[in-house]
UniProtKB/TrEMBL annotation:
InterPro entries: Aldolase_TIM, FBA_I. It catalyses: beta-D-fructose 1,6-bisphosphate = D-glyceraldehyde 3-phosphate + dihydroxyacetone phosphate. It comes from Cyanidium caldarium (Red alga). Pathway: Carbohydrate degradation; glycolysis; D-glyceraldehyde 3-phosphate and glycerone phosphate from D-glucose: step 4/4. Residues 334-362 are annotated as: Disordered. Keywords: Glycolysis, Lyase. Its EC number is 4.1.2.13. This is fructose-bisphosphate aldolase. It comes from the Eukaryota. GO terms for cellular component: chloroplast.
C-alpha cells in the first residue's frame, strides 16, 4: 500500500477491508456514541432517568434488533457501552457482530475552549494516552473509531486558528488509531447554527477539507483506511433563503469533489439536527446526482436514526419490539437513500420537528 512506516503497515489490508465494509452499498452507520450528558438529554426527552440501567436497556434494544445488519454496517459506541452486556450476559460487541454490525468506539474526550481564537471556538481533546486506549478497544472488539471536532460559521469565522487546530487533531488521531488497527472516522462537524447562505457554507467547507487532507498527508494518514463524516452543505438554520434537496446535493458534491481525495472510500454524513425524513431525502438526492467523486455517499446518523425509536420506546419494556421496528424503518429508509431509491414518505417517522438546538455544544 505504500503506507508510511509504523503499526499501520501490519493492519493495512484489514483497515481497507473494514472501511469498505462500512461503506458498502445500501448500508451506513448508527451513531449511538452519545456521551453520558448527551444521552441524558435524549432520555429526558422521553421522561426517562439517565441511570446506567436505563442507558444499558436502551442500547440493548438497539443492539439486539434482528435484521438491522441489512441496513447498518457499523455502530459507534461510547466507552461505557463498549464494555456492557445484555441483561442475560451477552457482550454487546458479540450481539452486534451476530446481527452483522461492526462495533466502533468514540475516542475523543470532548471539546474545550480554544484560547486565542474567536469566542466559543473549541478544540477537541483526547490525544494523551490515545494509543493505549485504542489498543484496548481493539482487544475488546472495536474495529473503527470516531473523533468529532466542531467548527462554526460566525461573522469573521471560523478562524484559521480553529480550522488548523481541529484538522491537526483529526489527522493525529487518525494516524494514531490506524497504528492500533482501528479505521478512523474523521468528523469535522460544521454546525448548522447561523444565518449564512449555503454558498458560504460551501466556501468554509472547502477550506476545511483542503486543510484537513493536507495535514493528513503531513501526519502519514493512510487514506484508503479512513472514512470522512462531514455535515452536508446546508444554509444556516436562521438563513432566510431555504434551498431544495437538489441544490443541497449539488453544492455538497461540488464541495467534496474539490476537497476530498479519491482514495477515501466513503463519506458518511452526520444528520446535525435535520429531521429523520429531511436527512433521508437529502441523502437520496445526493445519490441520484451524476458526479465525478468515486466515494460511497452514505450516513452516520445519530439523531436522525433514533428519534422515532426513542419516542416509541418511552422507557417501557413492552414497547421494545415496536421501537425496534421504528429503528428498522429509518435504517431501511436510509439504506434505500444510499442507493438513490427512497420514495419520500414511504417509511414511518415520529420526528416532525428535528433536534436542532441553537448554541448547543455537546
Ligand atoms: C450520537 O452523538 C455523537 C456523540 O456526541 P457527544 O459525545 O458529543 O455526546 C455525535 O458525535 C454524533 O455522532 C454526531 O454529531 C452525528 O450525530 P447526528 O445526530 O448529528 O447525526
Amino acid at each position: 500500500w505504500g503506507v508510511r512506516a509504523g503499526g499501520v503497515e501490519r493492519f493495512a489490508d484489514a483497515l481497507v477491508e473494514t472501511a469498505n465494509k462500512i461503506a458498502s452499498p445500501g448500508r451506513g452507520i448508527l451513531a449511538v456514541d452519545e456521551s453520558t450528558k448527551t444521552i441524558g438529554k435524549r432520555l429526558a426527552g422521553i421522561g426517562v432517568e439517565n441511570s446506567e440501567a436505563n442507558r444499558q436497556a436502551y442500547r440493548e434494544l438497539l443492539f439486539t434488533c434482528e435484521g438491522l445488519g441489512q441496513f447498518i454496517s457499523g455502530a459507534i459506541l461510547f466507552e461505557e457501552t463498549l464494555y456492557q452486556s445484555t441483561r442475560d450476559g451477552r457482550q454487546f460487541v458479540n450481539t452486534l457482530n451476530q446481527i452483522g454490525v461492526i462495533p466502533g468506539i468514540k475516542v475523543d474526550k470532548g471539546l474545550a475552549p480554544l484560547g486565542g481564537a474567536l469566542p466559543h471556538e473549541t478544540w477537541c481533546t483526547g490525544l494523551d494516552g490515545l494509543s493505549e486506549r485504542a489498543a484496548a478497544y481493539y482487544q475488546q472488539g472495536a474495529r473503527f473509531a470516531k473523533w468529532r471536532a466542531v467548527l462554526q460559521i460566525v461573522p469573521g469565522g471560523p478562524s484559521r486558528q480553529a480550522i488548523v487546530e481541529n484538522c491537526y487533531g483529526l489527522a493525529r488521531y487518525a494516524r494514531t488509531v490506524q497504528d492500533q488497527g482501528l479505521v478512523p472516522i474523521i468528523e469535522p462537524e460544521l454546525l448548522l447554527d447561523g444565518d449564512h447562505t449555503i454558498e458560504r457554507c460551501a466556501e468554509v467547507q472547502e477550506e476545511i477539507y483542503s486543510t484537513l487532507y493536507q495535514i493528513c498527508q503531513t501526519q502519514g494518514v493512510f487514506l484508503e483506511g479512513t472514512l470522512l463524516k462531514p455535515a452536508m452543505t446546508l444554509p444556516g438554520a436562521d438563513c432566510k433563503n431555504r434551498v431544495s434537496p437538489d441544490r443541497i446535493a449539488e453544492l455538497t458534491v461540488r464541495t467534496l469533489e474539490r476537497g476530498v481525495p479519491a482514495a477515501v472510500p466513503g463519506i458518511m454524513f452526520l444528520s446535525g439536527g435535520m429531521t429523520e425524513e429531511e436527512a433521508t431525502i437529502n441523502l437520496n438526492a445526493l445519490n441520484t446526482r451524476k458526479r465525478k467523486g468515486p466515494w460511497a455517499l452514505s450516513f452516520s446518523y445519530g439523531r436522525a436514526l433514533q428519534q422515532s425509536c426513542l419516542k416509541t420506546w418511552m422507557g417501557k419494556p413492552e414497547n421494545v419490539p415496536a421501537a425496534q421496528q421504528a429503528l428498522l424503518a429509518r435504517a431501511r429508509a436510509n439504506g434505500k437513500a444510499q442507493q438513490g431509491q427512497y420514495t419520500p414518505g414511504s417509511e414511518p417517522t415520529l420526528d416532525r420537528t428535528g433536534t436542532f438546538e441553537a448554541g448547543y455544544k455537546y
